[in-house]
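Reference record
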Amino acid sequence: MRFVTPILALVFLASGGAKLAGLDFEIQAFTRWGYPIWFMYLTGVAEVAGGIGLLIRRLSALASACLAALMIGAVATHVIHAEWGMLALATTIMTLAAWRAYSGRTEICALSSRLAVA
């Protein structure tokens, strides 16, 4: 698990950063999929925030769960548009994020308990 978290952080920081930078290939993809450009920026913010959350020990498992949920949309998009190579990549990333979240489920419960008390 130690190596999965920094890899996921790198993936989401890079991917989100590309969206926030408005790189041409990201604009073309969101346009091709029929999504508005503001949604690309929203997705970029979520990915960068999640990537940062992965690097914060207390938030890492929760960030992984949120990012796994976010990746459901990416997987669905690639299925709808028959982008099989990207589907395989998105599914792998989603699975790793879900596995990291599941591995840290006690951390998520502890964080939830702390927030409920506060």
